[in-house]
Amino acid sequence: MTITLALPSKGRLKEQALEVLEKAGLKVILPKDQRNYRAQVEGDSKIDILFLSASEIARELGYGSVDLGVTGEDLIRETLSAADERVQIEARLGFGHADVVVAVPEVWYDVSTMADLDDVAAEYRQRHGRRLRIATKYWRLTQQFFSQMHGIQVYRIVESLGATEGAPASGSADIIVDITSTGSTLQANHLKVLEDGIILKSEACLVSSRRSADPAGVAALAQRIQAAMAHG
Amino acid sequence: MTGSRAPAFASDLAALISARDAELVDIPVIQPADQFLDMAGEDLRRRIFLTENENGQSLCLRPEFTIPVCRNHIELNAATPKRYAYLGEVFRQRREGGNEFFQAGIEDLGDANRARADARSLADAIASIRLVAPKAELETLLGDQAIFEAVLAALGLPRGWQKKLARAFGNPGQLKSLLADLSSSQKNGFLPDRLTALVADSDEAGLAAALEEDMQVAGLSPGAGRSPHEIARRLIEKANLASVKLPAQAFAALETFLAIRVPLQTASTHLRNFSRANEFDLGPALDQFEARVVAVREAGIEQENIVYDAAFGRPLDYYTGLVYETRALANPDLGAIVGGGRYDRLLTMLGAVDSIPGVGFSIWLDRLEKIAGDAR
């Protein structure tokens, strides 16, 4: 039985994922044709490598159509409902660090916590006759954090497809939920992260699907990579 | 109109509710989604079936009846008082089990005699259950948002805290953590030096002007979202609140209040004793509560097991007074068979020009069918 391992198809994530595999003694033979999205591991015909976009990897793990994958925890938790029932995080890989955060305009000096935001959101509707708008790509994470964790109900999510940090200045939203690694983009846009506004500290993870047809094979491969990670 | 999937008793139930002086209305299954999200909050989004039309307008399958019935009333500009009855399917996403449920209910709009309308709503709801499950052992839990707000006011809490706690009514976890917060002090976060003095002097106009400059630097339009004045006012309010603490005595009184859970017949006496012991004046809220207890007695449902629970509420900001739900004691896992309440703010929020009081209930027919079957 072969095991399908999905890797990010481009950029730094792809490079670093390949390095991790190599440390575990799994050398991926890249296809000569860059447009080919399948590859093999040197000397191991039982592993199929599949290159996909990071968010597709999350979705396919949820379906169980790939057995293992390397992708960001943010994408796992955003793409899959009840993620922990469908997939398992086998290892945190130490790269691709990014925090999903709640950020508000710096000039909102009266707002430094989610409790402040709760007050502001309730007052906002009464004063402006509409809900406070949050621009984000992270619909599910935002909803869980605001509604379930903090009991804030009166807001509206405005889906943002890019340059979320510009939404308050362009007037399409009041605040944002976005990823940040250094905070410099937020700062340049005069936004600040709330004290208790870190929704998730994300990094690239090795993730297994709980719907895999070969759980033993998946566990063995995951263990091999975990062991390599532990030895640095 | 109910189709073959409706429980066998559906037409008898429709006859019962429409015979109670209520016009049976037909509400379209496909509804604009925003009205529900605006009223119930974003949390509803994952529980409704959403779609879009060609113009990008969000539509959904009817998740409940109260809001569209009220909207319909406003659009028709109908005269009040007016009572509407409905029976039909609602659609909710759930992880397990079905997604389509039948609901029936009555919305009573514009009756100025609130105590009588409240009691009537309770009586209608219980009569609907009794039609199908005459022998089931029921418990009706009754709460009152107005009493809770009157207690908060009587405690002498600052307005900001009152509003915050009132929003958490009916959500015990949130209420508890808020109370813990209020027992310790809160203060403003980082503030640039040039603003500190303006806040200390409570100079709202000066502060707003300074904030407006900051907004321009940041490229924010001062007219688009929160205005400089809103921010200035809240900064000053917060600075003033930072020096106030919730006194231990007030804290204890609030806890005593929230623990009150007594049969409705004795609830007025309990509330009177509670307010006397704490030297509170609960004012018109208590008068209204007592008038409702009398009206319930007159409505002939006093043999029913109705319990006043001071902590029972719904954390939705359009509920203003009475909230209630009826459960079957033999089927605790089923949840509420009926939920109801008074929503005097809802019609204004939906765009009515005049303030129109309203009270209503809905019955989950699948749950009702279950308890009828079990009790037989």
CATH architecture of the largest domain in chain B: 2-Layer Sandwich
Question: What's the mean pLDDT score of chain A?
Answer: 92
- Rounded to an integer in angstroms, the radius of gyration calculated over CA atoms of chain A is 20 Å
Strand order of the largest sheet of chain B: 1-5-6-12-11-10-7-9-8
Q: How do the SSEs of chain A run, as a string of H and E?
A: EHEEEHEHHEEHEHEHEHEEH
Poorly predicted sequence stretches spanning 5 or more consecutive residues of chain A? none
Pathway (chain B): Amino-acid biosynthesis; L-histidine biosynthesis; L-histidine from 5-phospho-alpha-D-ribose 1-diphosphate: step 1/9
Domain Class II Histidinyl-tRNA synthetase (HisRS)-like catalytic core (chain B): 17-183, 242-368
Protein name (chain B): ATP phosphoribosyltransferase regulatory subunit
InterPro entries (chain B): aa-tRNA-synth_II/BPL/LPL, HisRS-like_core, HisRS/HisZ, HisZ
Report on the structure:
Chain A has 232 residues and is of the alpha/beta class. Chain A has 2 domains: 3-96 and 203-230, 3-Layer(aba) Sandwich (D-Maltodextrin-Binding Protein, domain 2), CATH 3.40.190; 98-201, D-Maltodextrin-Binding Protein, domain 2, CATH 3.40.190. Chain A has helices spanning 11-23, 54-63, 73-79, 83-86, 114-128, 139-149, 167-170, 184-188, 215-230, and strands at 3-8, 28-29, 38-41, 44-52, 68-72, 87-92, 98-105, 132-136, 155-159, 175-180, 191-202, 204-209. Chain A has a 7-stranded mixed β-sheet with strand order 2-3-4-1-5-12-6, sandwiched between helices. Chain A has a 5-stranded mixed β-sheet with strand order 9-8-10-7-11. In chain A, strand 2 (28-29) and strand 3 form a beta hairpin. The model of chain A has no long low-confidence stretch (mean pLDDT 92). Chain B is an alpha+beta fold. Chain B has 2 domains: 9-152 and 261-374, Bira Bifunctional Protein, Domain 2 (BirA Bifunctional Protein, domain 2), CATH 3.30.930; 193-243, no CATH class. Helix content of chain B is 45%, strand content 17%. Chain B has 15 helices and 12 strands. Chain B has helices at 10-19, 34-40, 66-76, 114-132, 145-154, 159-167, 172-183, 193-200, 204-217, 228-241, 248-258, 264-277, 283-298, 346-349, 365-375, and strands at residues 23-24, 30-32, 50-52, 58-61, 82-91, 100-109, 138-144, 261-263, 306-309, 322-328, 338-342, 358-364. In chain B, the strands form 2 sheets. In chain B, strands 1-5-6-12-11-10-7-9-8 form a 9-stranded mixed β-sheet, with helices on both faces. Chain B has a 3-stranded antiparallel β-sheet with strand order 2-4-3, covered by helices on one side. In chain B, strand 5 and strand 6 (100-109) form a beta hairpin. The longest helix of chain B is centred in the N-terminal third of the chain and has 19 residues, at 114-132. Chain B is globular, with a radius of gyration of 23 Å. The A-B interface holds A 81-82, 105-110, 112-113, 115, 118-120, 122-124, 127-128, 130-131, 140, 143, 146-148, 151, 153-157, 168-169, 171, 174, 189-190, 195 and B 37-38, 40-43, 45-46, 95, 160, 163-164, 167-168, 171, 173-174, 181, 186, 188-192, 195, 211, 214-215, 217-221, 224-226, 230-231, 234-235, 238, 315-317.
